[in-house]
């Protein structure tokens, strides 16, 4: 007897991005997977995104737009998981494109019952090689499994990730104070990977599930985003320490060394550019700001979540 395909929901958070989501949605509708829905959590203050979706998929029953007055990518991702009735909840962003076999490869990983989360390969669209200013890059070609605490940014990024819905909800979902639009501005995607590992769960990475990130922000916007990454990272590591997880110290120093000191050095000696040097500087300074800001907010140590 042929086993029915695992039901999957693809959640796309968006807020005031208008027609940017058009290409993302077209790539999702071209997926070769037989049983999925696309759930767009629209936090916009206008109807431009809804109109763009209706233009691309006016009568497609697989697409659902949910207007929400929540703010922040974490809140949108959590709402998507709560509204889904699927076993697997996958996430991509409104500025990403996925290959036709993306969801097929993700669901294949979940055939192993011990796998709780899957992260896929994410590379910039129209990428021509590293220059020290890449955003959301995970280019490894080899599959990997993680079952112990590890720097979670080694695993993957939020534009290409999926979870067994039950395990995601049991872990408390994404931290509401992390993520774009949240108080700390970033890092909800590595945070959930780390918290699952800390709970004894297994996380996989597969290069076969390929997505592309469109780099559309100008330099000032990228600088703001990089500063948010630093604040979010510091807040992320601080809450682990406040929950009694001393691995947070290692994460802090690894982050500032690899994304801070080494990036400044590479900008100076390898790329001879002030841009990667400035981005590295951000990861030396702003994680400290994140640590200090985190002290104003309570932490649930059992789930390593900030308390609203």
Taking all residues together, what is the mean pLDDT?
Answer: 95
User: Which class of secondary structure composition applies to the elements?
Assistant: alpha/beta
Distance between the termini: 49 Å
- Residue stretches low in confidence (pLDDT < 50, at least 5 long) are none
Number of domains: 2
CATH homologous superfamily caption of the largest domain: Spore Coat Polysaccharide Biosynthesis Protein SpsA, Chain A
Task: Report the total helices.
Answer: 9
Q: Could you name the key traits of this structure?
A:
308 residues, alpha/beta, Spore Coat Polysaccharide Biosynthesis Protein SpsA, Chain A, 2 domains, two-stranded antiparallel sheet, globular
């Amino acid at each position: 007897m042929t086993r029915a395909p695992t039901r999957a929901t693809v959640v796309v958070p968006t807020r005031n991005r208008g027609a940017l989501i058009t290409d993302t949605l077209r790539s999702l509708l071209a997926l070769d997977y037989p049983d999925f829905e696309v759930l767009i959590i629209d936090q916009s203050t206008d109807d431009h995104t809804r109109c763009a979706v209706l233009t691309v998929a006016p009568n497609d029953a697989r697409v659902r737009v949910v207007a929400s007055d929540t703010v922040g990518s974490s809140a949108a991702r959590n709402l998507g998981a709560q509204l889904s009735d699927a076993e697997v909840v996958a996430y991509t962003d409104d500025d990403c494109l996925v290959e036709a076999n993306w969801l097929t490869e993700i669901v294949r990983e979940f055939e192993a019952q011990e796998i709780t989360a899957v992260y896929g390969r994410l590379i910039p669209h129209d990428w021509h090689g590293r220059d020290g200013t890449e955003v959301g890059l995970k280019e490894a070609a080899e599959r990997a499994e993680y079952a112990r605490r590890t720097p979670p940014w080694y695993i993957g990024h939020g534009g290409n990730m999926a979870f067994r819905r039950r395990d995601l909800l049991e872990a408390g979902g994404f931290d509401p104070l992390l993520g774009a639009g949240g108080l700390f501005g970033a890092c909800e995607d590595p945070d959930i990977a780390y918290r699952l590992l800390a709970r004894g769960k297994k996380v996989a990475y597969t290069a076969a599930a390929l997505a592309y990130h469109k780099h559309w922000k100008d330099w000032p916007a990228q600088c703001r985003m990089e500063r948010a990454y630093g604040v979010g990272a510091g807040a992320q590591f601080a809450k682990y320490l406040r929950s009694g997880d001393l691995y947070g110290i290692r994460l802090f120093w690894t982050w500032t060394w690899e994304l801070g000191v080494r990036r400044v050095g590479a900008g100076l000696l390898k790329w001879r550019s002030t841009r990667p040097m400035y981005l590295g500087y951000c990861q030396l300074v702003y994680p400290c700001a994140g640590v200090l800001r985190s002290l104003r907010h309570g932490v649930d140590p059992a789930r390593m979540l900030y308390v609203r």
